[in-house]
Specification:
By secondary structure, the protein is of the alpha/beta class. About 40% of the residues lie in helices and about 25% in strands. The protein is built from eleven helices and twelve strands. Strands 3, 4, 5, 6, 7, 10, 11 and 12 form an eight-stranded mixed sheet that branches. The chain has a two-stranded antiparallel ribbon with strand order 1-2. Strands 8-9 form a two-stranded parallel ribbon.
Length: about 300
């Protein structure tokens, strides 16, 4: 039994369709359907009448909806109680995307430290879906992430505040050999691409902003997919192909000339880095930190 299955089921109840619920949970519809099926298998009952359209809950599903929400609320309430008992020291818990935890947060740590004296700073890094899932479930005080209107509609809520805390770019880079980029310099040949998965945050952005306009200018040959920008960077440095990665992640390699930014027709994507908070602050340290950033 996994808590996310209960949250998925509540999303299905609220949205009334598998496709809309899957989109709200930032997973593909097949993956979402498998998770609902897993919940049904664990319970040993059918929650959804799959012979009906639009999506209809079985009588058992209708009865379980209220119980599922109660279980979710009780689980998080128990966690908060246990944390309050075992952690009397004030904490600031930041949920962060992987790339920002590596490239942005270390320098930003100084900002956090100057806002409180004896505050424990906890960072939980993950992919965008898991990070948002944890944040919206009340798992952390703040969410540090790249922002894009196209995929962040879920964050447009009255109880969610955000601050701009930085900027970055997704840039097309290649290893340099004999003063020239190893990949992307000769557009007459297929360009080896190390890519983000199409369903990932960066994958969606690149498809919308860059890749769709490259089809008649360059032939990209995808040789490897990886959701971690750090992993793509490592592959680029080994000379396996070119990739779009956050500029902050390769700043040193660009400065040393080990990597280079590919020119047109390979475009860059401007990124805004935002800090989000949901509802009221958990403690005085969180409020002091937020006010420090606003000042």
């Amino acid at each position: 039994m996994e808590l996310k299955w209960l949250i998925d089921f509540i999303a299905l109840v609220e949205h009334g369709s598998f496709s809309k619920a899957a989109e709200s949970r930032f997973v593909t519809q097949p993956a979402f359907s498998r998770r609902i099926r897993s919940l049904e298998n664990w319970l040993g009952v059918s929650l959804v009448d799959r012979d009906q359209y639009p999506t209809t809950l079985t009588p058992t599903g209708v009865a379980f909806a209220e119980q599922a929400q109660l279980l979710i609320n009780q689980t998080y309430a128990v966690r908060q109680q246990m944390q309050a008992i075992s952690q009397p020291r004030e904490q600031v818990q930041v949920i962060s995307q992987h790339a920002l935890a590596v490239s942005f947060f270390p320098d930003w740590m100084q900002t956090l430290e100057t806002s409180g004296s004896d505050t424990l700073i906890k960072v939980d890094a993950g992919n965008l879906h898991d990070a948002m899932d944890a944040f919206l479930s009340g798992n952390g005080d703040f969410l540090l992430s790249y922002a894009s209107h196209e995929v962040f509609q879920q964050m447009q809520r009255d109880d969610i505040e955000n601050l701009d805390v930085g900027h970055d770019r997704l840039i097309p880079v290649s290893l340099v050999k004999d003063g020239q980029p190893m990949f992307g310099g000769d557009l007459q040949q297929p360009v080896r691409l190390l890519s983000h998965p199409a369903e990932s945050f960066f994958g969606r952005l690149l498809q919308q902003r860059c890749l769709s306009g490259l089809t008649d200018k360059a032939k990209l040959h995808s040789v490897c997919e990886n959701a971690l920008s750090e992993a793509l960077k490592a592959l680029v440095l080994k000379g396996h192909g070119m990739a779009w990665v956050p500029e902050s992640l390769v700043a040193q390699e660009l400065a040393s000339g080990q990597l280079t930014i590919l020119p047109a027709p390979f475009d860059c994507v401007e990124l805004s880095i935002k800090l989000y908070r949901l509802g009221k602050p958990a403690n005085a340290a969180c409020e002091a930190f937020w006010n420090h950033l606003q000042g």
